[in-house]
UniProtKB/TrEMBL annotation:
Keywords: Cytoplasm, Histidine metabolism, Lyase. This is Histidine ammonia-lyase. It holds the Pfam family Lyase_aromatic. Its EC number is 4.3.1.3. It comes from Nocardioides endophyticus. The modification 2,3-didehydroalanine (Ser) is found at S152. Its main location: cytoplasm. There is a cross-link at C151-G153 (5-imidazolinone (Ala-Gly)). It catalyses: L-histidine = trans-urocanate + NH4(+). Pathway: Amino-acid degradation; L-histidine degradation into L-glutamate; N-formimidoyl-L-glutamate from L-histidine: step 1/3.
């Protein structure tokens, strides 16, 4: 999903400071190259010195001179440690299924590089620089859908990326052409690395895939929730509902910040509406509107607050060094830990899937009210041109309903479904990768549901003419019409109009149209 053309950095420097949301969006979604800062290179060198010293010591050190997971009790002799690293990466690159999206792979590569740059992993600088080189040249390893349990991090997805650093496996170049990794590296003037002690483990033991997908979803949902407010305003207007319930003094009685923001957006979007003004007088006998109209700020505002909670968790995770074992360079030691467990990320990924389903559900209910002659206050059944001959938007709502039903299934949490692995050494896992994968499908579904509400509401507002909509909602109607999506009339092939509206929502064009009139929404 693309969220317009944000003002993002052209090049991202990865240093000791945490990668920001904007850094990740720039690299993952917009192809920005990266470089390692001098502070990061110095930290990497300090940590590597500790690893080299421990590699020469007679005492076994996990991840440096031992096997991994349930095989950690075996001490590996010096002459076999390069083979140990190769074997680790090759065996763990065991993904299966469809390819993961390019933006997700670039996100997880950037986040792994960010952890390497903290100086807590013990890789050599040439290994970190090669990972930066792949990002800079647009070389994207092929990562498969299935293989991560979210603990010890996203092992299989990250292993496919580490494999490319060795000059093995499959990648896609900057143009998207698939080719062997060795050929892509050679074409870019990059030299594969032979992994040294600790490096294989350092490259694959992190929550980077699930975290990358969380940050991307947060960016998309922030935009989509504003767009859902636009859709709700169009529905309130088109269904002759009142805007008085959105008054700030009513929201202040229940001071949730997201609710206040959503209600303020509705007030701004409906300002100056001739449709709303037409039924504001003493002749209006409507006592109160249906929940799907009246409670839009409560639902969409609560979703906002959930997104911001998830953003807080993501920010903490971006500020983390997730590896096991970790190098404590100042103390000259390497210690095992459990920071690779994806539970903090998995929980909020599941939480976002729940609110995504519910925002889609209320959007579908608002759309359905437009189509029912008993509830749409004077509009034709199904907004059809000649009801009976024409079906109007009857089946557009079916499409919404099918998606909402799917979103409810996707809202079932993945993080409660731990399954043991590695001969019971890894006996409790997060399933955070699975939570992230289903959230991406949820975000796509919400985009489509909101788009159908916008499309239907625009048709209804045209049917209300000569009453004039508000300037902001009218700008959205104008955007659809100028994009080739026709207004009311006899039935026509509807799917292309739905897909065109989905693109206008996903690209941020619907949001931009409204904001061009009333300024930035909250």
């Amino acid at each position: 999903m693309t969220t317009g053309s944000p003002d993002l950095p052209a090049t991202v420097e990865v240093g000791m400071a945490a990668v920001t949301f904007d850094d990740l969006l720039a690299v993952a979604r917009h192809g920005a190259p990266v470089r390692l800062g001098d502070d990061a290179l110095a930290a990497i060198d300090r940590a590597r010195a500790v690893v080299d010293e421990l590699a020469q010591a007679p005492t076994p050190a996990y991840g440096i001179s031992t096997g991994f997971g349930a095989l950690a009790t075996r001490h590996i002799p010096t002459e076999m440690r390069a083979q140990l690293q190769r074997s680790l990466v090759r065996s763990h690159a065991a993904g299966s299924g469809p390819e993961v999206e390019r933006e997700v792979v670039r996100a997880l590569m950037l986040l792994r590089l960010s952890t390497l740059a903290t100086g807590h992993t013990g890789v050599r600088r040439e290994t970190a620089e090669l990972l930066a080189g792949l990002l800079a040249h647009g070389i994207t390893p092929v990562v498969r859908e299935y293989g991560s349990l979210g603990c010890s991090g996203d092992l299989a997805p990250l292993s496919h990326c580490a494999l490319a650093l060795m000059g093995e496996g499959e990648v896609r170049d900057a143009s998207g052409t698939p080719l062997p990794a060795a050929e892509a590296l050679a074409a870019a003037g990059l030299t594969p690395v032979e992994l040294a002690a600790k490096e294989g483990l350092a490259l694959i033991n992190g929550t980077d895939g699930m975290l990358g997908m969380l940050v991307l979803a947060i960016a998309d949902l922030r935009m989509l929730l504003k767009t859902a407010d636009i859709a709700a305003a169009m529905s309130v207007e088109g269904q002759l509902a009142t805007d008085r319930v959105f008054a700030p003094e009513l929201q202040a009685i229940r001071p949730h910040p997201g609710q206040a923001a959503s209600a303020a957006n509705l007030v701004a979007l409906l300002a100056g509406s001739g449709v709303v003004a037409s039924h504001r007088g003493p002749d209006c006998n409507r006592v109160q509107d249906a929940y799907s109209l009246r409670c839009s700020p409560q639902v969409q505002g609560a979703a906002r607050d959930t997104v911001e909670h998830a953003a807080m968790v993501a920010g903490r995770e971006l500020d983390s060094a997730v590896d096991n074992p970790v190098v404590l360079a100042e103390e000259g030691r390497v210690e095992s830990n459990g920071n690779f467990h994806g539970a903090p990320v998995a929980y909020v990924l599941d939480f976002l899937a729940i609110v995504t389903a519910d925002v889609a559900s209320i959007s579908e209910r608002r759309t359905d009210r437009f189509l029912d002659k008993a509830r749409n206050h004077g509009l034709p059944p199904f907004l059809a041109d000649d009801p009976g001959v024409d079906s109007g938007h009857m089946i557009a709502q079916y499409t919404q309903a099918a998606i909402v039903s799917e979103l409810k299934r996707l809202a079932v949490p993945a993080s409660v479904d731990s399954i043991p692995s590695s001969a019971m050494q890894e006996d409790h896992v997060s399933m955070g990768w699975s939570a992230a994968r289903k959230l991406r499908r949820s975000v796509d579904g919400l985009t489509r549901v909101v788009a159908i509400e916008v499309l239907t509401a625009a048709r209804a507002l045209d049917l209300r003419r000569p009453l004039e909509p508000a300037a902001a909602t009218g700008a959205v109607v104008d955007l659809l019409r100028s994009s080739g999506i026709e207004g009311p009339g006899p039935d026509r092939y509807l799917s292309p109009e739905i897909e065109a509206t989905v693109e206008l929502v996903a690209s941020g064009a619907v949001l931009s149209a409204a904001e061009s009139v009333i300024g930035e929404l909250r």
